Amino acid sequence: MIGQKIRKKRIEKGMSLRQLAEKTDLTPSFLSQVERDLAEPSITSLRRISEALDVPIFYFLLNSEEHNPVVRATERKILNFPRSHLTFELLSPDLNRKMEVITAKLSPGACTCEEPLGHQGEECTVVIEGKMLIIIGEEEYVLEPGDSIYYYASIPHKIVSIGDKPLVFISSITPPAF
Predict the structure, then answer these.
(1) Where is pLDDT greater, at 63 or 30?
(2) How confident is the model at residue 67, as a pLDDT?
């Protein structure tokens, strides 16, 4: 299903597989497999694809017909990758707003991406459980439950769970970019 949405958006943008590959540093054959749902992209690959297609990552998971302002805990859109120790859940009802709110859970030692990545907008993150190392540009910060940080998301950033129990945090992002 993610692959079909990627293909549809790529075609809407008038982009060939080769052009998308050049923008993402992924191979056309890999992208073709993703579009046919024969391969699952990593979170870093999906982020590159979403940036190249100018849509938030959650665009590939949402049903555009939904407009209910209430998001029940049992009905959240979940972004979970195979063989990953990282889960994101969309707390805001959709991506048709000026702000996106997500919660994330990282196993000890897990991180949000291999290399720090940036995106448009601003972000505010609060730690709910566990211990967070957040790298923003050249700066590193350690946050514990109740701590929060506000930053310009265009500066490449990366979050790592450094405690001995899972890290849970909530982030508000404007405009929707994840």
Answers:
(1) 30
(2) 61
